[in-house]
Amino acid sequence: MSDVQTETKKATGIKQDAIAALRTKLRGDLILPGDPQYEMARKVYNAMVDKRPAMIIRPVDVADVSSAVVFGAEQKLEVAVRGGAHNGPGFGTVEGGLVIDLSRIRGVRVDPEGKTVRVGGGAVWGDVDHATYPFHLAVPTGFVSTTGVGGLTLGGGTGYLARKYGLTIDNLLSVDMVLADGCFITADAKHNEDLFWAVRGGGGNFGIVTSFLFRGNEVNSVYGGPMFWPIDDAMDIIPYWQDFVLKAPEDLNGWFGFVTVPPAAPFPEEYQLKKMCVIVWCYTGPEEQGQEILKPIRDFRKPAMDLAGPIPLPSLQSMFDALFPAGWQWYWRSQFVKHYDDHAVELLVKHGKLLPTTWSTMHIYPINGAASRVRKQDTPWNFRDANFAQTIVAVDPDPANNEHMIQWAKDYANDLQPYSMGGGYLNMIMDEGEQGVKANYRENYTRLQQIKAKYDTNNFFHVNQNILPKP
Ligand SMILES: Cc1cc2nc3c(=O)[nH]c(=O)nc-3n(C[C@H](O)[C@H](O)[C@H](O)COP(=O)(O)OP(=O)(O)OC[C@H]3O[C@@H](n4cnc5c(N)ncnc54)[C@H](O)[C@@H]3O)c2cc1C
Known about the structure:
Helix 9 packs across helix 13 and helix 13 runs antiparallel to helix 15. The chain has helices spanning about 5-10, 15-25, 40, 60-75, 125-130, 150-155, 160-165, 195-200, 235-245, 290-295, 295-300, 315, 340-350, 370-375, 400-415, 435-440, 445-455; strands at about 30, 55-60, 80, 100, 110, 115-120, 135-140, 170-180, 185-190, 210-215, 215-220, 225-230, 250-260, 275-285, 305, 310, 330-335, 360-365, 390-395. The strands form 4 sheets. Strands 12, 13, 14, 15, 16, 17, 18 and 19 form an 8-stranded antiparallel β-sheet that branches. It has a 5-stranded antiparallel β-sheet with strand order 5-6-10-8-9. A 4-stranded mixed β-sheet has the order 1-2-4-3, covered by helices on one side. By secondary structure, it is α+β, with helices and mostly antiparallel strands. Flavin-adenine dinucleotide binds near residues 150 and 324.
């Protein structure tokens, strides 16, 4: 027996003939501990999560996904499903179990006439933007292009187009899935409607999505990018921005943040490594109006650095990729907020001035407009009445800073808790257990439990923000 075989057997007790039989069924990769790719393949984005699965399967098609699921069930393995691997608590991996890594299923097909976009279950958003941009179409996505379509969509999806076109789930038309018994199913508004409702916010609880079909929205030109001000100006900028962005035409979005200016071009040396406040704009209205729409904020307080201007949407959506590479320490908290009063602004600024590392940050994303016109019961994503999703992110390459930066994030969130509407965006929290999950879905939780019981009775898919099945 080879070293690889011995190690696998020790870790899982999986019989070699079972592995050999599985190999004959797969066209994708089967990676075991000891294989040359294993150390890279086991890693997820957040380096705080360091797990050693017994087996990693990288399917290339639905048949592979189905074989992987059936194998996991037969062998009684704990199964983690991985899209883009960006999940904070690291639900894309599992200690001693089976990882089904969808990263080889990432094709994107645009139908320019029907204005739809078909996306493989393991694609990342950069794949989608790249494919849709030439057709002047876009799917609402997140702010970093390396994030997975799978996890972001199934958890909701907030981004630059949320005010104009809603959350990512509000643009989802259909999903192809493999369920816990290995069977294939399509869910949309006319077929398996309960399942289609559940996947629009219910996470990876119901099965593996092998293909998403999205509406493609027309986006012809974008005027956007960041404006920076000295951090002391935040006391004035936040109230102004809050009022401005909530009343602005829905073509405009702009999230507020506290950041440390990166120590590199294009930032002037005088600002490098300075803590500042920032608004990152995205205006998708008529090109000639971009300058005009942002004139009031420029008049209100001239930015210290003004990098907003005409920009291709894929460039805006990948602008921060390099600042957040895979393999760093990552901890986050999230809250939904209706309104920041003067005291809330003081608290935001107080903790913003204490950013514990160069890469830690606090962002507030507007989610009013189209996202708030969807009724609470129409998808599991319940906080349709919130105006903002606030996220506090502690990030650093060095694990030695973990304790300090995690404490900062907790203190920040705890102080702002009186302004929280309850819950926190599930895609931007760590593992807060069943309470965290329930607090997010509120009155939609019971229906989710029932649908979970129907499609995944034994909670096979439980390495996620888990919904407990209850008929
Ligand atoms: C740098 C960064 C920026 C981000 N920016 C945004 C943002 O702008 N807006 C936003 O809304 N969120 C954002 N997020 C949060 C992001 O939505 C979540 O981290 C999400 O879980 C990532 O999805 P993933 O597929 O990359 O992760 P993974 O870790 O691969 O998966 C996350 C969860 O989804 C499940 N899953 C993934 N794919 C599938 C599938 N095809 N079928 C079934 N289950 C699946 C997994 O099992 C797991 O439970 C960001 C995250 C990071 C790290």
